[in-house]
Amino acid sequence: MSSSRPQYHYGFANEFVSEDPRCPESLPKGQNNPQKCPFGLYAEQLSGTAFTAPRSENRRTWFYRIRPSVIHEPFVPVDAPHLTCDWNVVPPNPNQLRWKPFTLSKEESQKEINFVEGLRTLCGAGDPKVRHGIAVHIYVCNSSMNDCCVYNSDGDFLIVPQMGQLNVKTEFGPMKVSPNEICVIQQGMKFSISTIAAESRGYILEVYDSHFILPNLGPIGANGLANPRDFLTPQAFYEDIELGKDGNGRGLYTVYNKFQGSLFKAQQAHSPFDVVAWHGNYVPYKYDLSKFMVINAVQYDHADPSIFTVLTCPSNKPGTAIADFVIFPPRWSVQEHTFRPPYYHRNCMSEFMGLILGNYEAKEEGFLPGGASLHSMMTPHGPDAKCFEDASNAKLVPTRVADGTQAFMFESSLSLALTKWGAETCNKLDADYYKCWQPLRKHFVEK
Ligand SMILES: [Fe+2]
After folding, report:
1. How far apart are CA 412 and CA 132, in angstroms?
2. How far is the CA of 381 from the centre of ligand 1 (A)?
3. Structural domain boundaries in the chain
4. Which CATH number describes the domain made up of 292-431?
5. In angstroms, what is the span from residue 411 Cα to ligand 1's centroid?
6. How far apart are CA 318 and CA 340, in angstroms?
7. 3-state secondary structure of 173
8. CATH placement of domain 72-274+281-289
9. Is-contact 384 436, C-beta < 8 A?
10. What pLDDT tens digit does each residue of the chain (447 aa) get?
11. Which of 178, 207, 438, 444 could be cross-linked to 313 through a Cys-Cys bond (beta carbons 3.0 to 4.6 Å apart)?
12. Which residues are CB-neighbours of 232 under 8 A, at least 6 positions away?
């Protein structure tokens, strides 16, 4: 890979055209599937929506690749007990939940664990078999995916690195994704992740229903929040690597597949990152969260946190998301005669939060980078006692908030259930979380 890689196309869900510059004219002209493709390539379509989806929603990409994807041996199950879509293993728990930063266990940290091996499902709802639901996964890994890749048949992954840059190889080309950036790898797209840091960690929102889109802006106008041109899609880059077969005739490259919530693997003799050219609008992409254009109240009160929505996966119910990806970026707080931290809240949606950097503005302590919280449907939540006291008495001058910080929320209209790993095995649940609100005292004085 040359030092100028990776290179990117700019824009969100554009009709992109991409050729590896080592093979100019490798995209067929004027048609998708010529009798013979340039350079002896194979044409292969990746469909991200039904063939007959409305034109405005239709997503597909044509690959021109050295070998078609179908050259692989049969899939066999992989033992991955912490990757699941079974939400009925532990009893429901409506409490406010908070997790300390996730780590590899002592035993795990003695081994090499790559991104796929380090995936753990924390909570979720729904069923990939009926393409309805979400899952929240945590990854912690200490090694790269060598001679293997993965694709997800169940839905799309929105990956939020918290620690360690991810070098993401995809069929479309490579991406580098650092903490405070995110990437989305949609259903069916093969990818492989290399890491540089001794330990890498992050959060994943998986949606089964549909794809992420940019939220409508309504009266905000044509610009603002996450601007389309700040989304980056990798440019075509191929490798032609034949690993061959072992003594038993098994290919030496492994393709992992998450299918109906379980992990499978198949062997083949070559790298699947052999796409020389592609065109289409069904693509992986990354986004730098520092580019988000923050909008909020400039006179009094708060805009609701939906004003911080980066991406949304809509449901069929107008205005109600299967899941929103929301951030709380550094910004000015200027509201007059206003309690400025987040308000106390009971929500008909589920709120899963994580922290990428710094300190979250509504909690004095305990919510740490690499940790998480879950405030389930109608479970009360809000600033802790110290935050309430401080903000109620603060001088209301224009103030920077959240500098050096990036908290985020996966907000879902589904009621999320914990997995056994989330409830027990990870051993990170903070049993004392509820105590942060206990010192809130009565201020009411009857006249
Ligand atoms: Fe809330």
Report:
1. 12
2. 6
3. 72-274+281-289, 292-431
4. 2.60.120.10
5. 9
6. 30
7. strand
8. 2.60.120.10
9. yes
10. 444 678 999 999 899 999 999 999 999 999 999 999 999 999 999 999 999 999 999 999 999 999 999 999 999 999 999 999 999 999 999 999 999 999 999 999 999 999 999 999 999 999 999 999 999 999 999 999 999 999 999 999 999 999 999 999 999 999 999 999 999 999 999 999 999 889 999 999 999 999 999 999 999 999 999 999 999 999 999 999 999 999 999 999 999 999 999 999 999 999 999 999 999 999 999 999 999 999 999 999 999 999 999 999 999 999 999 999 999 999 999 999 999 999 999 999 999 999 999 987 767 678 899 999 999 999 999 999 999 999 999 999 999 999 999 999 999 999 999 999 999 999 999 999 999 999 999 999 998
11. 207
12. 8, 9, 10, 175, 285, 286, 287
Distance from residue 84's CA to the centre of ligand 1 (Å): 27
The token pair at 404 is 């050096």
- Residue-wise over 261-273: b if at least 16 C-beta within 10 A, else e? bbbbbebbbbbbb
CA distance 100 to 434: 14
Which residues carry out catalysis? 302, 345, 351, 375, 381
CA of 166 from ligand 1 middle (Å) equals 30
Tokens representing 375 are: 């405030």
* Strand ranges in 260-405 using DSSP code E only, listed in sequence order: 262-268, 275-280, 285-288, 309-314, 321-328, 331-333, 350-357, 372-375, 399-401
Does the pTM exceed 0.90? yes
Q: Give the Cα separation of 119 and 122 in Å (integer).
A: 10
DSSP 100: P
The CA distance from 167 to 326, in Å, is 24
Cβ contacts of 286 within 8 Å, gap of 6 or more: 8, 175, 177, 181, 182, 183, 184, 231, 232
CA of 236 to the centre of ligand 1 (A): 41
